[in-house]
Amino acid sequence: MGQPEPPFNFLLSKLSSDRDTAEKKLKDIRRRLVIMLDCRGCTSSEDLAHEAILCFARRLPNMDPPFVGDVIPYLYTVAYNLYLDYIDKQLLALPDNFTEIPGPDEEAANIKEQLHECLDACLDGMDPKSRDLVLDYYRLDKQSKIDLRKSLAQDLGISVNALRIRLHNIRANLEKCIEQCLGLKPPLEME
């Protein structure tokens, strides 16, 4: 029996059978993790994104049952948990006479502001029906949210699952628009 594959290579093999494609996917995943952490006001987003990928790569070969599916939600969770640990360490490192928790630094605030401006611009650029649907879909919490979504599906004459699929597509287009607005992706060429 041969030696086990190194964890990082194993992760790349899970992303794609083509090494170059896998490396591009991993680079994109890392960028998305950095953005997510930046939006939370993390000052060490690059390091935490790298650590999340390494942590996942080490766990991946030993998962039982073997990991199947999209790695992004799992990596978001790993990165978020690392971020929470990072915050705890930052709070523990505060001096005893410190009475205020510092707000996010100016750069993080600028990124958040730019993100909100892009979201507004992308929402304004959507057709009114899709914009109203996505805003309604996400506006309530708990049981009210469930009831509203059933009502939206009924009004549209579709099942709740069909509504979820429709919202997934709208949200995916909205995310692409925001990434383009932030300069993370080149604009789509018109066909």
Assembly type: single chain
Distance between the termini: 52 Å
State the shape. globular
- Proportion of β residues? under 5%
Element string (H = helix, E = strand): HHHHHHHH
Radius of gyration: 20 Å
Structural class: mainly alpha
Total helical elements = 8
Annotated CATH architecture of the largest domain: Orthogonal Bundle
Quick overview:
With 191 residues, the chain is mainly alpha-helical.
Describe the structure.
- With 191 residues, this protein is mainly alpha-helical.
- The chain has two domains: 1-95, Rna Polymerase Sigma Factor, Chain: A, CATH 1.10.1740; 104-186, Arc Repressor Mutant, subunit A, CATH 1.10.10.
- Helices cover 70% and strands 0% of the residues.
- The protein is built from eight helices and no strands.
- It has helices at 7-15, 19-39, 45-59, 71-92, 106-125, 128-137, 142-156, 160-181.
- α2 crosses α3 (45-59), α2 (19-39) packs across α4 (71-92) and α5 packs across α8 (160-181).
- The chain is globular, with a radius of gyration of 20 Å.
- The termini are far apart.
- The relative contact order is 0.08.
- The model has no long low-confidence stretch (mean pLDDT 80).
